[in-house]
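Quick board copy: two proteins, each given as sequence then tokens.
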Amino acid sequence: MSKNLLIVESPSKARTIKKFVGPDFRVLASVGHIRDLPVKELGVDIEKNFKPHYVTISGKGKIIKELCAAAKDAEQIFLAPDPDREGEAIAWHIAALLKVDDEQIRRVLFTEITRSGIQSGLARPRQIDLSLVNAQQARRILDRIVGYQVSPFLWKTLYRGLSAGRVQTVAVRIICEREEEIENFRPREYWELFADLKTAAAEKFTAKCLQYKKHKLTIADGETAATHRQALEQASYRVTKIAEKELKKSPSPPFTTSTLQQESTRRFRLAPARTMRIAQQLYEGIDVEGTPVGLITYMRTDSVRIAGEAMHGIRQFIETRYGKDYLAPKPRYFQTKKKNIQDAHEAIRPTRFDLPPEQLEKQLSREQFKLYRLIWNRFAASQMASARYLQKSIDITAGDYLFRVSGQTPVFDGFQRLTNDGREKESKPDGLPVKIAEQDTLELEKLRADQKFTEPPPRLSEGTLIKELDRLGIGRPSTYASIVSTIIDRKYIEKVKGSLQPTELGKVTNRILVNGMPEIFNVQFTSVMEEDLDNIEANRKDWLEVLREFYTPFKKSLDHLNEKRQTIKESVQEKTEHKCDLCGAPMLIKWSKNGRFLACSAFPKCKNTRPLEAPEVELREDKSCPECGSPMVLKEGRFGKFWACSTYPKCRGTLPFTLDINCPEADCDGQIVEKRTRKGKTFYGCSNYPKCKFATWNEPIGRSCPACGHPILERRIRKSQANALVCPGCKAEFPEEEEQK
């Protein structure tokens, strides 16, 4: 019988830890939180000092029973959820449910899932830190109050199912305001002058005009550009200065949660939530030659601190692998400019310096390998020598004008031998002349005036949004990914070619909440709340005091918003010139979960509705309504195309829209129908469903297979290869071009 019980969050982490702790420990997993606020009610008694009402999470009864049974037989219970506020709260909830003597329970922290990391954590047990627990409780209660008291206002104003959030609403606001900047941006014309020059040795190069009469040259229009150009065509060109100097470029610090998500999004197009799932796998343990190994330290951190043991290990690796020249002369220590970092854990780094990425490529999935290599390279590069460049610039005068051309030549690659972050494109020295000296006269070959226009600020991507949230002090490392995922899932924001853009729903919701509660949904207020939560964790502020300070202005602002609800609701319902088909009353544009639609203004007496932008329809005399015999029209609904009676709403007869391809199933007289799933994905099934269960994701083609005679083929759409027609029976493939011919 094991004397000790060790409880972690994740089953995969539990499997890894079992290999390191020996038979004296029984290792179990809580599988995340076991208690939380109830789903269908506020769960916070505001009148009784914000007392939370915690309930057991659905489906966790069996796990709790197992944990309680194991706790009865254990001498010591070690609680080891993740080393952050959330993990501390999970440990607190587990301790409350185990119902054992407090002296039996110890909290331990594992910042890396390795043998040394586990032993170090077990050697430093402590009591549960109630300051961390209260900081997590305060955040949870704040978010619950905002979500459960503001969201119903949106339901009554727009439609049921919308949500508001203390942080997510501010994130939507940031994106909406960036979109407004882009929409309101007015391009400004400007011109630049370039001279194609030739030296006495016939070397050609191009220089840019920077100054006129020792002031920065600014050209606003083509007429001014022509005047300067005319003067320059008559001028003589002479080299007045050649300068060379060596520049150094230092490596970036190791990753924090924010910078890891930014770089992963930029390089691999991985969503932040996906990045964190992969990082969690690397942290909890990957099988390496049959033994689970935690490959990186804890991945939710805002610190760039490096442990002394890790510093020594990576510097030893660099000197052995690359030589002493590539090792930074002294250990590099980094500092962050942010003022409200927790610094509870060191930066994200590899745990084993004898396991470089190339050694694990076969043991890791493609995404795991890419992320592990990114983390490894960033950490190793932080302790490598600086890259060095020789910068050369040439100044040329032409009367009152100054031209310049410059470039950089690599001298020593340093840390860039291992990684190049790609943020700066080094200018190429190829275009610079070699046989040139000061006071040389140059020949003007061509003078060029380029018209340009200022550009609007770029839209935010998932990575740059996280960078902005991090810069503004909004959210914590553990919340960035969920913030981005939530606003996209709620359809407030959509991804368009990698950029985040507000939807119409997002713009309307943002306008309602920001205009209605400006004191609450703003960057400064949200940032101050994050500082208050940090102060609770540091035991500098009482968590109930923070809740009271928040709730007073929040309640006042919410009451004021509810007083204006009817006015706000009317403002988002646009009047139209359309008349109701049934009663003749004017139609209004309203909102639903499927978007905007037309509804009769006489509601609830008249409940007529129709699509906002009804597509043009063509009567099909060959299609007769099964109910009244009238011609039918083709329409598109939530689950795909269908035939509808042209006399709707008097007659509601419908027929399925088929592809005029017979169902391939034996003894079935149905035809194939194009349909859509609840999430909008197109598939093809039989019109006789549910009697016939035929279905396929691929587009059917009404042509039999030349090889086996199967009645249909399917079109397979491929990214890296040409599309093909595939037989679902014998799997034979045929070029798509044959079908097109």
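And the next:
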Amino acid sequence: MAFETELIAKMGDRVDLDEVSLDMARSADRDIQEAIVNYLQKRQAKWQPDLVVPIGSSATIFVANNRDQLFPATPILYVVDQRLLPPGALGKNAAYVGQEIDLPGMLEDMLQVAPATKNIAVIVGATPLEHYWQKAFQKAAELFAGRINFTYYSNLSFDQMKERVSTLPPDSYIFFLVLVRDASGVTLNADGALQRLHAVAHAPINSIFEHQLGLGIVGGRLYQTEEVGKEAADIAVRILHGEPASSIPPRLFERLPARYDWRELQRWKINEKLLPPGSTVLFREPTLWDRYRAWIITGFSICILQALLIAGLLANLVKRRRAERSLTQAEKQARHHREQINLLSRVSLLGEMTASLAHELNQPLSAIITNANAGAHLIDMGKKDPEILRNILADVVADGHRAHEIIQDVRNTIKKGDAIRHRINLNELVTNVTHVLRPDAVASSCEVETSLAEDLPLIEGDPVQIQQILVNLVSNAFDAMGQTPPSQRKVEISTVGSGDGEVRLSVRDHGTGIRAEVHDRLFDQFFTTKEQGLGMGLAIVRSIVEAHGGQIDVENVSDGGARFYCTLPVTEKT
């Protein structure tokens, strides 16, 4: 509870809490009360309290009736509804903190959100304490005489209560007053009983205590157990530090602003416009916009970016065509040819980037939708298993992070921002990439061999970008051996440490090699020797290598084929 948690937080090891359950509401028998008094007297022979804090109705009544015998000189801090304090209770070295339970106000809150209510069923037990609260409720109900029909369940067993609430007529409401023991003598846990009634109820339920919001009640201006407990802990600390209890003014809490459970408002079709001004609605389920706002905005942003890029290209084309009017016919034809090639290359590149991004985002977004639908289906079926729902939400979060990383990597690439660097084992990266490219190797009838140096130093860089280097070089090697007999198609990947702060990664094919006239332009943007190529792959590879502080080059091998190799600096040892 809030009192114990707050007290331990403020006092730590300096406080020794001895909790005694005195739930006298279960029995008013004098012999049992005397037995508990004898038990406490023997207990105090070895341990004397510095402060007694009776919390709740039963403990308050017991301590007030037996104080002279048990705690004649010990300060008392009562935490209860003030109406339960006997006359003169605060004049004997005692303090008080609590909130008066406003039963008429709670009934008004119920009728404000459900003005058509004609019947209110009151859930109350059969002990003397519960009879006290039933009389208090009946007095509060006099204000609504002639308008509302009240039915009290104090003469029923709990099973009979469940049967009654499951068959209530329309325009009914249930008030869960207090339930410790039913008419058949069965002792019950109040919160558990509330939840069991909620499961079968044919009408909305309301109650007294704030902590029961979320257990099945609609809500309103409730008794604030949390704040009362914290304030009681503060006063207890003052008393334990030597402040006389009688010098502390009684602390009476005002009613909380109204608070409601959104799920119950939806279940009973209660319009939120009927709630009191300033009400707070809790447990509201997020809409699709709330759940996927970032992804929706990202999708629209991509579409808008595409539209702006295409519009910019078209506008630039219009401007250039206007300028062409002042040129000669031979110049117009040459420029038109260059413009067409440039435009087609850029549009193709844009389409390829868009298709790639859509493909990468499709899987995590599909997984998010599937998991969200599964969670909603479980809830609709009534299977509210917290562990299953927690696992589903964990999957949604993981897929969301994956989509975010894909978008962030594209943004960093476009903005040329700093990549996230890690220490990388290049040999492990080569092994992983060869595993990923195995289907491509089979499709190209190529064999892949690796020669990896032992004790290769670690490098520092972006693992995704270093993988991109290797994937690009190996894919190009597959393409370069299109005219090579299948039995001779082989790609060799090797790593070696130079011993002077660098490592070398090389990819060798057995194709036709690199022609001398294209060697110097091989890494230029938009230069390609492939019929279907865009001329971006090796340009991107070179930019990544140089961004990591390395160099890349290519050479022809004497016995056929070409070898691409790049050197990368090793990470500094710490």
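Board note added afterward: The two ends are 49 Å apart (CA to CA).
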